[in-house]
Structures
1.
Amino acid sequence: MIKLLGIVIIVIGFILKLDTIAVVIAAGVVTGLVGGLNFGEILDILGEAFVTNRYMTVFFVTLPAIGLLERYGLKERAAELIGKLKAATAGKILSIYMVIRTIAAALSLRIGGHVEFIRPLIYPMAEGAARNKYGDIPEEAVEDIKGMSAAVENYGNFYGQNVFIAAGGVLLIVGTLNELGFQVTEKEVANASIPIAVIAVLLAIIQFRIYDKKIEKIMEGNK
Amino acid sequence: MALEILYILSGIVSLITGIYSFRDDTLETRFGTGLFWVILSITFIFGRILPAKFVGILVLLMGVLTATKQVKIGSFKEVSEEFKIEKSKILGNKLFIPVLSIAIFAFVIGQFTSLGGLVGMGIGAIVATVSGLIITKASANEAIEEGNRLLQQVGPFSILPQLLAALGALFNAAGVGEVIASGISKVVPTGNIVFGVIAYCVGMAVFTMIMGNAFAAFAVITAGIGVPFVYSQGANPAIAGALALTAGYCGTLLTPMAANFNIVPAAILEMKDKNKVIKTQAPIALTLLVIHIILMLVWAF
């Protein structure tokens, strides 16, 4: 049970809103110590994992280009394009992205990403649609649109990917189950992942509709 | 090798932010902030050749800097809204060419070569920077300034995914997974399919929330809970296995531990509330978790 001390530290740290990075490091060090590792071994694991997971942070290389384009009006342009579609709403734009993102994930097409797609294109389009409809929108609505824009990427990515027969998740399921003595094939697992992918798309579209209504209500309240 | 070059380039972006921070007179904590970004750049540029222990010490140092509130957002030039609107009118849809080139290179290279999507993204980023400079006729300095601005806005949270991966490695080494799996299996009544399925799906989601990673949870929870309570009761393994992993993803949507999906995007989109992404996702995640349980019960048995 004492091995769960690290989890307790994380929970308390998040509740007290302590510095996240320091809390995570403290939890790791404590877990290592109560798990019987010495300080040198903990440093080794910390350092090695940090270096092997650098790939999670390589989006840094895209920042100069995206920043430059933003300085020269990328968001404004995306918003203007969407403005030409009179019926567009933030929710509709995000629903379309959800469908495309899920199908792409199912086909293993690597379309998406918060840095590559959401910040430069999808979010400005969604916000542009709302601004086009209502003019100036309050901060609360802007935050909602940002939240949805980040979420749609996760929904499409997570629930679409296992429909692809050679997805990492599918291979993991097959490998783990075979090792435990249950015979399954990649094709069976990929097929079994289809219903949840479809349900996730439907739920996302419902959520985006609800948000559209919420934004409408906020705007009416402001009039 | 190509990936290592990409890490070096990322390190250079961080190094530039470090230098800008050191030089930023308006920033009270400029020394700590600059040090943070320079240390990070060292782990990126020299990560492969540095001893792991030394990197571990550098990581601890970064933690000390953020814990003592030494890392803050500096100042940078912001251009006016009028400038942006005017430029967007002049440049028109050409502005999309560089952005799309990031996406297209990531896609094509990831899809059709053995280099992988990340390397594709890196090449795309270089193409985007060069084509962006040509299209906007901006100076290279402006791109560097803008890279600094965005990285400062994303802030120290950018290292959270890597740190959480390290935390996962430490949890694994300490055997946290086994403790949780045995804890859950003690409270589940044996022989009851409904409780077994609930324990398997909820266990996947909860353990994923703790580890921040459904892949890490899958092997532990499947061996500890899935096999005794679900598979050995006659579940179709392909269906139960597929649903168990995506039940884990419901946990991913709910946890700050999955920082690169939930916390970093909040920083990238400059949200006021860094938990806003999780709050937005919570209703969908919980609904989907219930659907997973029902689906596994009616479809896998």
2.
Amino acid sequence: MTALAPATSTPARIRPRRTWAGVLIGVALPVLAVASLFIGVSEVSPAALLEGGPDGDAASLLLLSRVPRTVSAVLVGASLAIAGLIMQMLVRNRFVEPGTTGVTEFATLGMLVSLVLWPGMPVFGKMGVAAIFGLVGTWVFLRVIRQVPVRQLVLVPLVGIMLGGIVGAVTAFVAYRLDLLQSLSQWSLGSFATIMQGRYEYVWIAAVMVVVAWVAADRFSVIGLGEEFAVNLGLDYRRVVAIGMVVIAVITAAVLVTAGMIPFLGLVVPNIVSLIIGDNVRRSIPWVAGLGAVFVLACDILARTLRFPYEIPLGVVVGIVGAGLFLWLLLRRGSRAH
Amino acid sequence: MTLKPTRPLLAAPIALAAAVALVGCATAGDAGTDAAEETTDATVSFSWDRNIAGEDEDPEYEATTVEVPVDPETIVVFDIASLDTIGALGGDVAGAPLENVPGYLEGYLSDDAFNAGTLFEADLIEIESHQPDLIVIGGRSAGLWEDLNEIAPTVDLSLTGGFLETLERNTTFLGEVLGAEDEAAAAIVELEAGIAQAQAVTAEAGSGLGVMVTGGELRALAPAAGEGAREARGGLIYDVFGVAPVVDDITAATHGEPVSFEFLLEHDPDVLWVVDRDAATGAEDAQPAAEVLDNEIVQQTTAYADDRIVYLDPVAWYIVFGGIDTTQLMIDDVLAIAE
């Protein structure tokens, strides 16, 4: 923080903070990922791995259980945060994410419908149904938002939460009538406890969506400047919005079938990143993905260790940590406005 | 006769007035059924500590006694275990939450049985229109007492104390009500012998772990350790059937503690007792738990290698748990590992 020429004072003030944050994410991600590999009920330590032993239990557990769990934590965190970022660009509002716009609730309804109508359906099919419902949800939300005359900052997520509330009520009612309420709450409460090989692979589809988002990043940046501006720049506005909707819906559905609902993530992570490096989507995508992954990894490690050898549902941990961070963001914004 | 025995002075005149009213009715009523009415005048009294606090508040108990007519004609039951016992003792039930009556107990409903609501909620208008003589509630429906007791004498046969004590208390009481004391006594003797036999089997079987599978997740069930009531259902496998828990520090919780597959492998019980919650309540032919447990980590466990993953009848163990036929089903589930 040495004194610099006035002309460069703004970037100079940001840069050290950026470097600092970048290094933190860059270090935390591999450290947490390695820790995640070696934390668990069974003995899987680097030493046990080296010994190999007559049965090679540690190595097989590492592959069967630890690697899938770590990979899904990373991918879920990264993709959900990206889904939040894209949503924020599409709606031009910092307070939206799939969980505050009804998309998650629509996808959950889709899961329930597939569970009831086709109980034997493979997970891939369930995810497809959930994604289609999520897509409908995104579309409905965007339509409704268009009709709202005053685009106040807080009004948009409020409308979304209301929409989610209605769909959530329908889901709860159906589940109640069919005595599935407890199962519903069980799989909608995010958790990686039973993640293992063969039960997590669908998060790779979410990872593909992250790549799509990356490729289309610049377009989302332009979309974030408004429809008129985007059209004037010669952008096919509707197509970019459609790509964004698909990315959001598929990520939401993939995360839902593997881990369940994870609140606040898509809201908090892009906001923190935007505070650090601004709103350029191409530049912020790796940051958002990295920070999202770090966030979920850390919460999952907490979920595994706080009540060892039992687990606390991840959704609970993320909810508490995320709500705290969100509050901090809000208060911080308020203080800056003064 | 009196609901609150703390007020004997008030109760006496009320009882007198009631007696006068009854006599008045009897003389005014049709004379042809006099003999039948004679027997229904006899009552059995049932006393329990009723929880008068709301569902999520600290329990607050009030001693409650209800006089129940002997040989009641129209019985409405919300407690499925009591439906089981009433049926097994030769009675039949006129109204129940029909959607929650499992297939193996449907025969105990009268042919024109009406739907009385759900396990949690009563259809008061429907019940009132059938003018029941006795209403039995318990467990999930315990909070309905005040509303239902206005319609007809209502008793709460919820679990109190241990499973066996409750089974014995309820069976004896319902036996008296139905005039089937001998059958009730015989059933108790038979069930106790069956449970002793099951305990002998589990004592040989080594350590065990009860897990509930729901929504694709695993939950370790805990011994109730005297907690009774709601906590008991997860712990029945240990508390009643004598399974030696492979871990003894699981906190008693209605739906168990979330665990990973690694937890199963690490603690490696000799027998894994599985309650498939989704099969109990969801699609009838689905066995989602088997799918969840069909993986390479579970396949490394002793229970898998010895073919000792036992799927318990989910309806019996999770929904009903209690009642004569159901307890026999539970005994058979446990005895199955002896073959």
